[in-house]
Amino acid sequence: MGLVSVLLVSFCVLSVLGIPTTLDGPFKPVTVPLDQTFRGHAVDLPDTDPRVRRIVQGFEPEQISLSLSTTHDSVWVSWITGDFQIGESIKPLNPKTVASVVRYGRLRFPLIHKATGHSLVYNQLYPFVGLQNYTSGIIHHARLTGLKPNTLYYYQCGDPSMPAMSSTYYFKTMPASGPKSYPSRIAIVGDLGLTYNTTSTVDHMIGNSPDLVLLVGDVCYANLYLTNGTGADCYSCSFSQTPIHETYQPRWDYWGRYMQPVTSKIPIMVVEGNHEIERQVENQTFVAYSSRFAFPSRESGSPSTFYYSFNAGGIHFIMLGGYIAYNKSARQYKWLDERSCQECMRVAMEDLLYQYGVDVIFNGHVHAYERSNRVYNYKLDPCGPVHITVGDGGNREKMAIAHADEPGKCPDPSTTPDEYMGGFCAFNFTSGPAAGKFCWDRQPDYSVYRESSFGHGIFEVKNETHALWTWHRNQDMYNSPGDQIYIVRQPEMCEPKVSQKC
Ligand SMILES: *[C@@H]1O[C@H](CO)[C@@H](O)[C@H](O)[C@H]1NC(C)=O
Ligand SMILES: *[C@@H]1O[C@H](CO)[C@@H](O)[C@H](O)[C@H]1NC(C)=O
Ligand SMILES: *[C@@H]1O[C@H](CO)[C@@H](O)[C@H](O)[C@H]1NC(C)=O
Ligand SMILES: *[C@@H]1O[C@H](CO)[C@@H](O)[C@H](O)[C@H]1NC(C)=O
Ligand SMILES: *[C@@H]1O[C@H](CO)[C@@H](O)[C@H](O)[C@H]1NC(C)=O
Ligand SMILES: *[C@@H]1O[C@H](CO)[C@@H](O)[C@H](O)[C@H]1NC(C)=O
Ligand SMILES: *[C@@H]1O[C@H](CO)[C@@H](O)[C@H](O)[C@H]1NC(C)=O
Ligand SMILES: [Fe+2]
């Protein structure tokens, strides 16, 4: 195999740097179980915690956050004015009553540029006796344009006529898109929630000074609460009697307030998870998610907030939702397909990503950490992407500690239907050690490392061939890695098939 000589080369790299590379793989699977000395459940911050309280007056901006547009020259600023209401006789605020203005510039004073955005309120309504309705504060989104790459900008947001402007915040733009231009550190987290363990994850993340944060689904877990504010660690077992899967929307505001010190300085890119579904009146779903965050959907040609793409320097990110249709006839698939070429695609999403030469796929949802070898269609493949699960942000649901390959833990295939795929999508393995079975009987060969601990990851693209991935566990010192790998691409061996063909 051609790999052998590469292995020798990379062995030298390994001995110098001490950090393994994917060229050293495939690696033997390792499982690290939950350290049983950890105290039980992750506990949510209560609504009395000062970090989740409303501290602004009147229509002063709160819950300020930044998100990227598709390119470096544009950034979204989002904020909320006015308080939410929850209960019986709620009366939605009129979003037109408060302007959406951002003043910004490279000097703190004067802020010479101005962007005007749009505003909205959303409601979470339950037409069932005994359930309380919610209406949000006024949510504002404004897009700053004409920004220079890698540059510090100061900004204030709010309504200058009231006057109700925020204090001055600052952020740094991404480097220009190009092969030798990368942000230094991108933090990747999933399934954050808002527990004391979440705060530990976020503290560790801040300690690594990221330039950008990616949140791969499951934000505040408002759907672990009834509308009266009573929460549970496991919704389905505690509240099976209610007529709809309730939520307690103020948890979203708590999350926005808690995160503001991070999100007002560092752009955050969010993609939806199952906890954002939040079904309500008229079967509406994902309303809080779609209303509260700004997404570069229009800028990236996506018709929805559920999938979009953007560049951070020379890195192209494709954010895909796992909770809306992603089969071949779905709009999301077609959008991804049209990003580069109309004719060349055949099979499912994974084929698409493989053919684009995607190197890493980050997932949330499973509440643990796992990193795979390069794999494609469950087979080890030096040109397949590395799959990394970072669902270990610290939310109050249980840490994932069982594995489907342990005795008695393999689920019945018929219990795993996927409604968003348009039906049933689980199949038995067709080849390899688990051929003909639904689960492996040991940690699969494609899995390198899995551990049941809370933490976050930092992704650092060094150059066109080398990206360093580091996973940090909450229980470790701030700078000591729990798992680390150089993801190395071999462009001559693994040319993306799409750009070849099209
Ligand atoms: C979660 O945080 C608590 C402290 O608030 C700590 O005792 C516990 O060990 C943490 N759990 C894990 C799995 O890190
Ligand atoms: C909440 O809103 C729904 C839909 O408008 C309505 O049917 C229901 O009566 C409202 N509930 C309360 C408690 O006001
Ligand atoms: C909320 O409703 C649940 C279920 O009806 C009830 O058990 C609980 O006591 C209520 N909590 C409050 C704070 O009213
Ligand atoms: C909502 O969904 C339910 C069950 O899926 C369906 O019976 C109902 O007709 C839907 N209602 C609306 C307004 O679409
Ligand atoms: C794809 O999913 C959509 C929505 O769930 C469904 O209507 C459609 O029949 C599915 N198509 C295929 C080919 O499975
Ligand atoms: C799939 O695997 C399960 C065991 O994991 C087995 O019971 C079932 O018969 C298999 N189904 C098919 C169609 O081979
Ligand atoms: C890319 O970065 C890696 C890690 O820093 C380094 O070992 C390698 O020599 C670099 N390659 C090029 C072509 O600069
Ligand atoms: Fe989750």
Helix content: 10-25%
Number of domains: 1
How far apart the termini lie comes to 29 Å
Compute the number of helices.
8
Number of strands: 26
* Average predicted confidence as pLDDT: 88
Bound molecules: 2-acetamido-2-deoxy-beta-D-glucopyranose, fe (ii) ion
Shape: globular
The name CATH uses for the topology is Purple Acid Phosphatase, chain A, domain 2
Going by helix content, strand content and strand pairing, the class is alpha+beta
For this entry, give a set of tags.
disordered N terminus, signal, Purple Acid Phosphatase, chain A, domain 2, acid phosphatase activity, binds fe (ii) ion, alpha+beta, Purple_acid_Pase-like_N, zinc, 502 residues, 15% helix, EC 3.1.3.2, 6-stranded mixed sheet, binds 2-acetamido-2-deoxy-beta-D-glucopyranose
Q: What do you see in this structure?
A:
This protein is an alpha+beta fold. It has one domain: Metallo-dependent phosphatases (Purple Acid Phosphatase, chain A, domain 2, 4-Layer Sandwich). It is built from eight helices and 26 strands. Strands 1, 19, 20, 21, 22 and 23 form a six-stranded mixed beta sheet that branches. A six-stranded mixed beta sheet has the order 16-15-14-24-25-26, covered by helices on one side. The radius of gyration is 23 Å and the shape is globular. One 2-acetamido-2-deoxy-beta-D-glucopyranose (NAG) binds next to loops.
